[in-house]
Amino acid sequence: MKKLATFTALTLAMSCANATPVSVNPLIIEQQGSFAVGGTVKTSDGTYQPRPEITQNHTSNEFMAVFNESIASGGQTLHGDHATVSYQIPSNAKKLPLVFLHGAGQSMRTWQTTPDGREGWNNLFLRKNYAVYLVDQPRRGWSGRSTIDGKISATPDDQFWFAQFRMGEYPQFFNGVAFPQDAASLDQFFRQMTPNTGAFDVDVIAESLTALFERIGNGVLVTHSQGGIAGWFAGIKAPDLIKGIVAIEPGNFPFPDGEVPATIDSAFGNIEPTKVSKAEFKQLTNMPIIIYFGDNIADQPSKIQGKDQWRIRLSLAKQWAQVVNKHGGDVTVVHLPEVGIKGNTHFPMQDLNNVAVADHLANWLKEKGLAE
Amino acid sequence: MKKLATFTALTLAMSCANATPVSVNPLIIEQQGSFAVGGTVKTSDGTYQPRPEITQNHTSNEFMAVFNESIASGGQTLHGDHATVSYQIPSNAKKLPLVFLHGAGQSMRTWQTTPDGREGWNNLFLRKNYAVYLVDQPRRGWSGRSTIDGKISATPDDQFWFAQFRMGEYPQFFNGVAFPQDAASLDQFFRQMTPNTGAFDVDVIAESLTALFERIGNGVLVTHSQGGIAGWFAGIKAPDLIKGIVAIEPGNFPFPDGEVPATIDSAFGNIEPTKVSKAEFKQLTNMPIIIYFGDNIADQPSKIQGKDQWRIRLSLAKQWAQVVNKHGGDVTVVHLPEVGIKGNTHFPMQDLNNVAVADHLANWLKEKGLAE
């Protein structure tokens, strides 16, 4: 009886340890905090009335009526379209911080705890002594204040993203996929998503990134997916501050006028390459760039959404690298399975092997002199 | 000449110190991360088609058309209405963590860096060895995924909130207000705001808080403003887990059926006290509760919005404390100027004297045995 009790206690202790992995070493954080950066101010016509004429008492339910009277008088401002940044600076921080920008439908949570409760790249790169700046882009997450109206549809679409993000063909995961396949982890993953609160605007996002680097100084930009597009434009705007760009499965690539390749067909939505001026393009030859793609990407047209959607982007990435390098740039495209890192979804920073991918990136940063 | 140079260097060093205050001691963090908690799953009618019939190739601009085809086939889920939690557990953490819930129009940024760049209560209470859990309530900030449609109006309203949050009568600050009065700080403050992505629902929020305490165990709940209302209902639902409640200028108070006081009039929107059952009310006599109110609150009806709006809530708070204490509870209402802490706005956790207010709270936690 006693032995059984001990065994049960041990089992419980072990399952607790599995549920909440405890890191061996604490993080030593010299500074941490949050701030807004970039953005604009919109002002309504009229004159603000701090003491509106109140003709009668309003009931509790009429608080909104008072609010509406106040904004109707006009002359008020709205501070919006900024990015919000959460940062941590560890002790003995390296010179160049890492700035992380999420992708479509995501927020800075992309870089934090993984869906199954392991440490994300935020913690992993703090442990490698990088200062880490996480961004919620304008009109997303903490940066929800937009200067244009927004409409949010609550139409179920998780399965579309499961396919697009290359977990598998719902409800089947791809064989050998490096994503946790238990229900609780998938639940957590879906709950990372958070909508645009106003129209997606790549220029507004790129400007907020530029403003961020102007505030914090030189650094390395790490983008994910849709965020990659804003990242290229940030690199074009601030090539002296952005000392390197890491793009995890970016959505598109800016080719110079006159060297734009053909659109690549996909049954799930083509990619028309982005076009920029030669002068703009030239800026992206000023910093080393690495682009990562994961596993389960087709090399021929496929009827599987995720495999086909990233086939066309990986193909475009390789074409873009050639053009940048021909113009004196330094772009490396890493197709992870080719370097022995297998099973990755569209979220390698969260996959089961996210430590291996982080280590690969850390080596590249070191090689390029960005890890001092 | 040399003396001048030394003087200049010293001046520069001093202004840098002002711009970015560097804390003397680093934070030692044993664990940190984020997760979703609570929420629901909404499913659309139909059958999900992982391989929709694609009759023609779609161009890049038709990615949304593919997305719309996918969701139109139905059979998809939406995981929404959860809270999102960011947590840090310092070394030598006290037994009971603090859970912080923001107010109207805000997110967990309420508790982080102040508008003028000082440490907020997140850092201050980590330094006091509390584990800290910051919440973005359902349909706000990182928890933007809602099961009901949302509409966001980009109508300028900063000046309404400046008044409601008791900074002053825009553009004038109140005399002696403990809020930084430079333009950059006010800009940062306005940019903390972030809208609801779906209708505000106090039950959904209270349920997510309950789910959070079920996950992390016993703790103390700290609420701000509108968040206070969800906080009372969380206390009613989980009185065994919520060992104390701290309410910073809560928006309303739950009175027991039969003891609901008269509605208090304000020209800027009355307060009709919240009514709960006697059994529900009784749960709030099970834990110590402290309620804070700041400065510039009128004791007679006032034509100044902020002074009048918090007059009626402070008055209601005092009535509520009497009723709870009569039923065997332990509620303390602290009107900060009466204990010598002056000038506070609706955001004492960010005001210039936020350290003094935090210390007052820390003493109360100690007195009530919540600081072990």
Automatic annotation (TrEMBL), chains A, B:
Signal sequence region: 1-19
Pfam families: Abhydrolase_6
Domain of life where this protein originates: Bacteria
SUPFAM superfamilies: alpha/beta-Hydrolases
InterPro entries in the cross-refs: AB_hydrolase_1, AB_hydrolase_fold, Carboxylesterase_BioH
UniProt keywords, alphabetically: Signal
Coiled-coil region(s): none
Domain AB hydrolase-1 intervals: 98-266
CDD domains attached to this UniProt entry: Esterase_713_like-3
PANTHER family referenced in this protein's UniProt entry, alphabetically: AB HYDROLASE-1 DOMAIN-CONTAINING PROTEIN (PTHR43194:SF4), HYDROLASE ALPHA/BETA FOLD FAMILY (PTHR43194)
Name by which UniProt lists this protein: Pimeloyl-ACP methyl ester carboxylesterase
Originating organism: Orbus hercynius
